Amino acid sequence: MESLTSPSDALVVRPLTPMESPSFRGMTFPRYRAHLAHNASGNVIRLGAFSAGEPVGLALVEVSKSTDRAQLLSVFVSAKWRRQGVGTKLLKELDGVLSATNVNRLQAVFMDRADELHPIRPLLQTCDWSEPTIRMITCFSSKESLGKAPWLKQPPTRLPDTGRLISWAEMSVSDRRKLQESEAPAELTPAESDPDIEPYSSLIYFDQEQPAGWMINHKIDADTLRFSHLWFRSKNPPRGMSGLLLVAHSIWLYCHAEALHPLTRASCNFRANNRRMWNFLNRHLRRYLDSIQPTFECEKTYRPSDHAA
Ligand SMILES: CC(C)(COP(=O)(O)OP(=O)(O)OC[C@H]1O[C@@H](n2cnc3c(N)ncnc32)[C@H](O)[C@@H]1OP(=O)(O)O)[C@@H](O)C(=O)NCCC(=O)NCCS
Which pTM was predicted? Predict the structure, then answer.
């Protein structure tokens, strides 16, 4: 077995400088790599672990601009440095950094692996995080599997002529503003300009020129489209239109539109307690999905006395 220097002697954990950040790109998920560009902006804490000057670990945290919360986006240690305290040191150092901010709650979301305990579970336990609870359900499918659904063979046609169904690509500035002013919950409302929204499969339905529902999707990496936010007006729903039709249209576009051919994988997630979504999934989608996985959430809270005076 390879012998390693004891990391406790040589290990340094500290915030990365903008010039150092790009060499840690391989230590996080593709969707977070932009946070490591040398000119990256935004409220992200980047902590790097070095051994003899070599990058061996990374923790990335996004701090919310409007609340006292932060999200642990990822934590990673190079394979040959695992089980030697590097992950623990990264998270302990993070506690120190966050204690000097207004953050009161640090959250983490992770998906368990099918066949083994996720190593982040015991790591977070070691670092005094809360017990993980199931938060979301994430479904994955290939375009091939999804395309087998019989209800996707024909484009959905039953659209009422009183409304207007348009894609994100067709939205005017005033349409976008209307979305912000709609009655939809804030967490389902897309930002006016979100560069990751996939413009051809994201659909918005206007009833009498007011937004009555939408299916907003994100390109989360080079291959994957995530069906992210489905909302449909429940009070006074427009006749002849439904959330199901919106989803069917959006999935149909995903399977057939030429611009979307490179996106061969699809995912969607929803809150584990969302009964309507479970019903929809069981009745119309389950057979065409490759996997359904729970994601877990846990958190660490910082009391005001933890913050530096
Ligand atoms: C998760 C990860 C960051 C842990 O880093 P690490 O440097 O190995 O963690 P530590 O050495 O500080 O481990 C602390 C404790 O966590 C537990 N632990 C860590 N990895 C474990 C594993 N694979 N199996 C069981 N327990 C584990 C142990 O209790 C360990 O203490 P011990 O070694 O004294 O028993 C590392 O395994 C990793 O990078 N994995 C791949 C990326 C990943 O899955 N990241 C999390 C999602 S973003």
Answer: 0.73
Residue nearest to atom 14 of ligand 1 (CA): 123
The CA 12 to ligand 1 mean position distance, Å, reads 18
* Amino acid in the structure at residue 260: L
Distance from residue 49's CA to the centre of ligand 1 (Å)? 14
Is 280 buried (19+), middle (13-18) or exposed (0-12) by CB count in 10 A?
Answer: middle
Is the C-beta atom of 7 inside 6 A of ligand 1?
no
Residue 119: CB within 6 Å of ligand 1? yes
Average pLDDT over residues 258-284: 92
Does ligand 1 come within 6 angstroms of the Cβ of 109? no
Residue 153 has pLDDT above 90, yes or no: no
**Residue 276 phi/psi, 5° resolution?**
-65, -40
Is pLDDT above 50 for 133? yes
Domains of the chain, first to last: 7-135+297-306 (3.40.630.30), 140-295 (3.40.630.30)
Give the number of the atom of ligand 1 that is nearest the alpha carbon of residue 78: 39
Distances (CA, A) of 242 to 22, 183, 268, 299: 45, 17, 19, 36
Q: Are 219 and 201 in contact (CB under 8 A)?
A: no
Cα separation, 5 vs 11, in Å, equals 10
